[in-house]
């Protein structure tokens, strides 16, 4: 059951992440994603066979301790934004903010479930399902948020970092996006300690979430 819950939570989280990008892009003046039907919680238009299923399954089965995935990138046209730089940054950060909100909501939900279960108000199968769902909801969304903050094209953090670079260098930097996934997979398998160090905020905030939930026991 844990593997099924994990995949469902991951897919739900990355779908919300992509919808947040599309929704914010519309607010900035670009309706490209909306016209293509990407402002929807229906997972079908968002799912990527490699990033949504194959890579997460391989990472889970490998026991690497690192678990993440991705959906099809939301198509946007930054030239349509009312404010090009600020709009691009807000659209890029929208997905990260959505995952942090989901992590916070999962923490609160887990605390409530913990309290109800401590009072004997939940049957065992339901309690196990809810605990798994919200525990993975916290961890997966924290990983997605801080993983996407890494300044490696095409991750969201690279969009912010690119605006710091001078024009020609920024263009070359963005072009690295076509090799970004290969670079990330190489780092995960050959330098796993580097990714763990970059995701230190995940472990820190996960500890804070555990502390908060512990208050409800």
SSE blueprint and pairings:
Elements lengths: L1 H26 L4 H4 L13 H14 L21 H35 L5 H25 L7 H7 L4 H9 L1 H14 L1 H7 L1 H15 L3
Helix pairs in contact: 1-3, 1-4, 1-5, 4-5, 4-6, 4-10, 5-10, 8-9
Could you characterize the architecture of this molecule?
This protein has 217 residues and is mainly α. Helix content is 72%, strand content 0%. The protein has ten helices and no strands. Helix 1 (2-27) runs antiparallel to helix 3 (49-62), helix 4 (84-118) runs antiparallel to helix 5 and helix 4 (84-118) packs antiparallel against helix 6. It is globular and about 60 Å long. The model has no long low-confidence stretch (mean pLDDT 88).
Mean pLDDT reading:
88
| Rg value | 18 Å
Beta percentage is under 5%
Taking the sheet with the most strands, its summary is: none
Number of strands: 0
Series of H and E elements: HHHHHHHHHH
The helix fraction, in percent, is: over 70%
What is the 3D shape? globular
Low-confidence stretches: none
- The DSSP helix count reads 10
What is the first-to-last residue Cα distance? 25 Å
Structural class: mainly alpha
């Amino acid at each position: 059951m844990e593997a099924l819950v994990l995949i469902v939570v991951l897919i739900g989280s990355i779908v919300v992440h992509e919808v947040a990008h599309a929704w914010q892009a519309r607010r900035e003046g670009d309706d490209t994603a909306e016209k293509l039907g990407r402002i929807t919680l229906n997972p079908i238009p968002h799912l990527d066979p490699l990033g949504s299923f194959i890579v997460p399954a391989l990472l889970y089965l490998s026991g690497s301790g690192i678990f993440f995935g991705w959906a099809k990138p939301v198509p946007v046209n930054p030239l349509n934004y009312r404010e090009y730089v600020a709009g691009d940054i807000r659209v890029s950060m929208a997905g990260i903010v959505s995952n942090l909100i989901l992590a916070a909501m999962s923490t609160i939900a887990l605390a409530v479930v913990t309290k109800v279960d401590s009072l004997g108000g939940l049957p065992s199968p339901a309690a196990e399902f809810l605990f798994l769902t919200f525990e993975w909801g916290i961890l997966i969304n924290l990983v997605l948020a801080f993983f996407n903050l890494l300044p490696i094209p095409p991750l969201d953090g690279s969009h912010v970092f690119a605006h710091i670079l001078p024009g020609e260098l920024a263009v070359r930097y963005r072009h690295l996006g076509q090799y970004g996934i290969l670079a990330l997979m190489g780092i995960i398998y050959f330098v796993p300690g580097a990714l763990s160090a970059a995701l230190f905020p995940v472990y820190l905030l996960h500890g804070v979430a555990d502390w908060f939930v512990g208050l409800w026991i």
